[in-house]
Amino acid sequence: LVCLSDSISHICRIKRILGMPHGHAMLVGVGGSGRQSLTRLAAYIAEFKVFTIEVVRGYKSDLFREDLKKVYDLTGLQQLDTVFLFNDTQVIDNSFLEDINGMLTSGEVSGLYPADEANNIREAMRPDVEKAGLPMTNDSMWQFFIRRVRAHLHVVLCMSPIGESYRNYVRMFPALVSCTTIDWFSDWPAEALKEVALKFLEE
Known about the structure:
The protein is α/β, with parallel strands linked by helices. The protein has helices at 5-18, 35-46, 61-77, 94-105, 115-131, 138-152, 165-172, 175-178, 190-202, and strands at 25-28, 49-51, 82-87, 153-159, 181-184. Helix 1 crosses helix 2, helix 3 (61-77) crosses helix 6 and helix 5 packs across helix 6 (138-152).
């Protein structure tokens, strides 16, 4: 990775967003502009874990939700600061963005857990809920879990402004804009491209 002044500016912005309570980002730019690489570097600097999905043949909403459970395990149960890095090329179904919309607004994804798994999570929260002096009700234990998720989860969306998809997404799922900080990735200036070329020629 060749670090240019523009790259460093984006890293600083992303790092600052990750340091905010409920800090989520939307990085808007064309593919190859460094959005994902710079996010990973910013997360490394912040000592955050990065989680992203791997879209394979047959990957649909059920597998996506299983991946979301892994994110909730990292943030709500293990209490690890985690960046959920999601690219618009991974939108196999609009239900993916509907779930992310819920994560951004309330921290919850409707129907993510069946009853038995939700009960297991509540039981895992029970000692800490009791220690905090909160009511030992199902709702109290669940909300305690969701608060932990929200405290440790940072969603970073990489979107391309080209075509109709971006406009459709933000119209259908308003939290993608209202609950994120937007960082625009413009075309790299000629001087930056020259620096990259010189770096590779030197090697």
